[in-house]
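Notes taken during the Thursday session

The instructor put the following on the board and asked us to keep it in front of us for the whole hour. The protein is TonB-dependent receptor. We were told not to look anything up and to reason only from what is written here. First, the residues (721 in total):
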Amino acid sequence: MKPLLSLLLILSSYFLTAQTTVSGVVTDPKGVPIEGANVFLDATYDGASTDARGVFSFTTTETGEQLLKVTFLSYEPYEIFMNVSTFKNLNIKLREDMNSLDTVVLSAGTFEASDNSKVSVLKPLDVVTTASALGDFVGALQTLPGTTTVAEDGRLFVRGGDAGETQIFIDGIRVFTPYTPTANNTPTRGRYSPFLFDGITFSTGGYSAEYGEALSSVLLLNTVDEPDQNKTDISIMSVGAGLGLTRKFEKSSLSLSTSYINLAPYVALFPNRNNFNKPFQALAGEAVYRYRTTDGLFKLYAAGDRTNFDITQEDINNPEGFNLGLTNSNVYINSSYTGMLNDTWSIQTGGSYTLARNEANVQSTTQVLDTENSAHLKLKLKKRFSNRFKLSFGAEQFITDFDEDVTVAVNDNMFTANYDFKSNITAAFAESDIIFSRDFAIKLGARASYTDYMKDITFSPRASIAYKTGAKSQLSLAYGDFYQNPLNDFLKFSQDFEAQKTTHYIANYQYSDNGRIFRAEAYRKSYSDLITSTTEFASPESVFTNQGSGYAQGVDVFWRDNTSIKNMDYWVSYSYLDSERKYLNYPEQARPTFASPHSVSIVAKYFVEDWKSQIGMSFQHSSGRTYTDRNRSGFLQANTKSFNDLSVNWAYLLSQQKILYFSINNVLGLRNINGYQYADTPDTAGMFNRRALRPATDQFFFVGFFWTISDDKSSNQLDNL
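Then, after some discussion, the predicted structure tokens were revealed:
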């Protein structure tokens, strides 16, 4: 019996001496203990959890070098590989996981509109449910701060910049002709259907080094990666009809759509200040093919449209009016691929091609034929070194071949002229995201661009900083230089230019809490090397220079709330703009004619369950814009009256997949004035008579019926809107 007891004592002593104690404390970066962290030796059952003091301790029989792991939710895993005998009294600090939802967001100057973004101030559905937008994404964006409503134009005017200073991209690839052509004092529309996009990023300034050729802003449209179901969309409207078809396959999907618009019924029913000899017509088609590979997604997008109209507009200097007939054909093809090369490298590449052709007949004496071939090629690589440091870089090429033929009839004699140019822009960019903690991050980038006809290189540094001031708020700062080459209207007459430049300074505060978003942003833009001209409109006789300059500064405020009031979603935006510039034929620096010092937008949407209806309203106000009163001395010394518009809409659900839609713009019939046209010569009293430039109609009525035939019979058509 004694020998057996001795053996047991010897074995117990051996096992006790073979065990090693692993101990230490786990804290966050500020030294605060973390309770509940898991601490264990990899590939073993040996481990423990930390207590309220962050302390852990356990024993192991493992020997030699071992991998110790520490994990805790919202923190990066911690690993250390050493001899197990050294794992005593460890002091382990966990780093915050930068992929967590509450990480700081670099947001200065940028409005996210993706359903998947962390902070969205606008959703893609807002494009078609905002009363004043009339289904146009530009109309919806004009309710955001930083934009100015220029009713007679219809394009995006951002923070004191004209419409040519904003560029549009689809899936990261440039769109050269994003708007349909139109006559003077008649607003244009975007060419592309809002139903194609599930994400919109609208940068009002300080945007990424990845994008260039825009002095003021960029609008990034991302097409749907994967449709949710097979469906057929049918729409019948007061001004046309549309048909869409979407089919899903094992690894791919295809969406087709076509639409036809004819304003003849509308012109016949409602008085119009223009005389349409041939009302506006448009036939358009779009196709999107998607193919998902093992590690990425390929998209091919093609769109084409043909529009035409013939209009005679009032002209104070011509009793017979001003006549314009226009036929436009446009083809746009965009292909892109986004994928992972391995665990840390990703690639984004693609290209676009545009063929745009305009045939214009002016006053039956002048014929103008414009043909533009444009292309954009792009390659971007991104390396993720860690959750805290990411680097992206790439290169791109912009190619433009423009040709214009002009034929003028004078006293039975024909005179012809040709204006053309070719442009190649080569650019490279690099940008890094450095996240120091969940509360502090910076983005540093730079862009270099070379233009062949200028034989000059521009260099654009850019930087953004973001700091979380609380669990639901943050501050952001942004700085950057931005360059843009002259538009076609100038290059077709001369290529003796330099790139125009702006420098942006932005300070942003943002608060987000459970469907409520508040943003306030102050900015300053300094312009240099703007184009000046000796004539009002660019022509062969114009003398151009790059001696223009200017500034734009102001404050933008935005508030959106979709939770405080049941079934109610609303937002309010306000912009203050102080802007002056000397450019084009301006004899002195002055507030440009498209800039309004004060702009207010109020949008509200309310769902009435008993009526199965969504009722919406939009109100827009802009203070008066400048014009030159020829009966007074000075330049741009007068102001128009303020612009006001109240629009309403009503969407009624006939069934789960059928909806009836009504919309009225400017329901009060307010007589807005966009400016004035003055007579070329004074009357007998020496005064210059003038004519108010007003919209063609005071109101626009729209009625539509939409029907979706889908695999999911329970889907709600209101959601599709």
